[in-house]
Fold this protein.
Amino acid sequence: MECANQRVILHVLLVLKVLEEPQFSGRPVLVYASSIGGYTFTQLLIHITQRPKEHADLSQRVIGHIYDSLVVGTLEHMAIGLGKTLLPSFEGLVKNIVLFYFWLFKTQTADFYDNSVRVFHNSPITAPALFFFCENDALCDPVAMEKTIDLWRKRGVAVESRKWKESIHAAHMRCHREEYLSTLERFLNSLPVSSLKAKM
């Protein structure tokens, strides 16, 4: 897990370097993260919070962020979700193995995850956000998702969301194409996209 975390951090540092290259440094940024991509983006947020002066410009350049099927909830919810997703016939066994793994490597898993959740909840980026999620997603606890949305709204972030009763993890656009695209288009039209186009 530690090696995987280090690889993610190396990728994040590479993305930060590219975003701050002279040819990109003045351009607006639109974030789109799906599923575990939200975790990767959170590692970028952690780096920004650790060096706020160094990356203040990047935080201000984000004009919006979109999250589709974030993996969110307790570690137990995540373990159950992995069991249902990977090996439904052995759901209980997978759940217990994953929870044991989280316990065994607590500092590299559970503690790391808890810190990531804290940083995401208090994200230094306060641009408008859009969340897509559903009630039957084994990897995205809808109650935890709604709490995150409520927390961001209380912090003054303009948040839009689209929740379905039934859908498929990271496949909402395929399952609910028209609703997904119309919600996405409405959100994008609410952003200062003209400034984005002008810079391209």
